[in-house]
Design goal:
- The structure is a single chain.
- This protein is an alpha+beta fold.
- The two termini are 24 Å apart.
Length: 441
């Protein structure tokens, strides 16, 4: 008998219960809004957007230099600094990787750096150099609203805070001798209000995008579910053909049996695909149930139940177990992860235009210390480095014809929920290696 059943249980005091509830709600909010913003890209680049921003930056800084230096003179203007900011705009227009689709990780970092330099840092520097006058107070307020529209609110908050701090330090050490910013609270209140509203608008926009994603995923799940009705009818037709086959001896009966088997395989394959799509449609709402799983047993079960299109396709999959390990996770979700990775590898092999051989998809299982690995290695078409940085993003797919871009995003969510990691290493025409690493339980 389990001795835990005889241990007395103590319910927390009401105050402790309230505190635990608040802590749980805070942690849930932080996870959803800050730590796991998978539905929100850090930048939202497009050809038109990047070119428009580059043009405005390139032209805007010299234009405003002329306005503030000659037409409506301000206490401080610097032509060289304006030209330096304009160079950032020219980079957005001239450097090919800035407008490449999909954007590479280097492009994302470069875009973030240019926007940070030309917005929070530059505007704060000019604000201090102009003693916080009305023109630059309004400019600072506009900058905050623009910055939060250009990028994700989390990055904008960190960037704005860092830009303001570094600009203040630069002004304190290298700035011109000008009257200090007024010590009254008016400027602070105005800027604090603009900053606060920028954050609120950024969070609300993030929530709108997340709700749109949820609605799209729900619609996909409903459509996938509705396909089961015609499939059930096809299943009945297949059974009718199979029952009719014995009444037609000879070649006619064999054809009916073959046709019935083809219908059965098609229905099985489609039902498997529907299960996959309905699970992927729960991308934003994964089940919290977890259990102790055997990696080798999980992979064997998933491959055994996978609806291969031919015996040759099944034979190309080889499983090698160097050492089984156990981990904690959801069996249903991890079966889906293995299905997704297997499907992607087989699709890549099919696109390679060569007959598959045993081992073209190699699944290796092993453990080293406190970490276990499940490695999928295929000899398919592979992918370019710039694609690898985005394949785990929702709705991004390297298969533009049939891919929906949810499978790998789903895999990443499931693996991360189990405190693991998933990564890819690939090269064009040299296959791909997907490595799932999990803590051993």
């Amino acid at each position: 008998m389990n001795e835990d059943l005889h241990r007395p249980s103590f319910s927390p005091t009401p105050a402790r219960a309230v505190f635990d509830n608040l802590r749980y709600r805070l942690r849930k909010w932080a996870t959803a809004e800050v730590l796991a913003p998978i539905a929100d890209s850090i930048l939202h680049p497009s050809h038109w957007r990047i070119r428009a921003l580059g043009f405005c930056t390139l032209v805007g800084h010299p234009l405003f230099y002329g306005i503030w230096a000659f037409w409506l003179p301000q206490p401080y203007e610097n032509l060289w600094l304006r030209l330096l900011m304009a160079v950032g705009g020219a980079a957005l227009l001239a450097i090919a990787m800035m407008t490449h689709s999909p954007p590479s990780r280097a492009a994302g970092i470069a875009l973030s750096g240019i926007f940070w330099l030309t917005l929070p840092w530059f505007f704060t520097w000019m604000y201090f150099c102009n003693s916080g006058n009305a023109v630059w107070l309004a400019s600072m307020a506009a900058m905050l609203l623009i910055y939060y529209q250009l990028t994700d609110w989390r990055l904008a908050t960190v960037g704005a805070a860092g830009g303001v701090l570094l600009a203040w330090l630069a002004f304190a050490n290298f700035g011109p001798s000008v009257p200090p910013v007024p010590s009254d609270a008016a400027n602070t209140v105005v800027l604090a209000f603009c900053w606060f509203m920028s954050i609120i608008l950024g969070v609300s926009t993030s929530n709108v995008r997340r709700e749109q994603l949820n609605s799209t995923l729900d619609t996909m799940g409903i459509m996938a579910h509705e396909l089961r009705t015609p499939l059930a009818t096809m299943q009945l037709i297949g059974e009718a053909l199979r029952n009719e086959a014995p009444a037609h001896p000879g070649e006619a009966g064999e054809r009916l049996e073959q046709l019935a088997q083809r219908v059965h395989n098609l229905v099985r394959n489609m039902n498997h695909q529907i299960d996959m799509q309905m699970t992927n449609a729960r991308l934003m709402r994964l089940a919290a149930h977890a259990e102790r799983l055997s990696a080798a047993e999980l992979v064997q079960r998933a491959i055994t139940n996978y609806p291969f299109r031919s015996s040759r396709e099944r034979q190309c999959v080889v499983i090698r177990v160097y050492g089984d390990f156990h981990f904690v996770g959801s069996e249903r979700l991890f079966l889906q992860v293995i299905d997704n990775l297997t499907k992607n590898a087989l699709r890549s092999l099919a696109a390679a235009f060569s007959a598959t051989r045993p081992g073209d998809l190699l699944i290796e299982i092993g453990a080293h210390g406190a970490r276990g690995r499940i490695v999928f290695t295929d000899n398919g078409v592979g992918m370019e480095p710039e694609l690898q940085a985005r394949i785990f993003q929702p709705f991004f797919s390297t298969d533009r014809g049939t891919g929906h871009g949810l499978g790998l995003a789903f895999c990443q969510r499931v693996v991360q929920a189990a405190q693991g990691t998933i990564r890819v290493k690939s090269a064009r025409h040299h296959g791909a290696v997907f490595t799932v690493e999990l803590p051993v339980a």
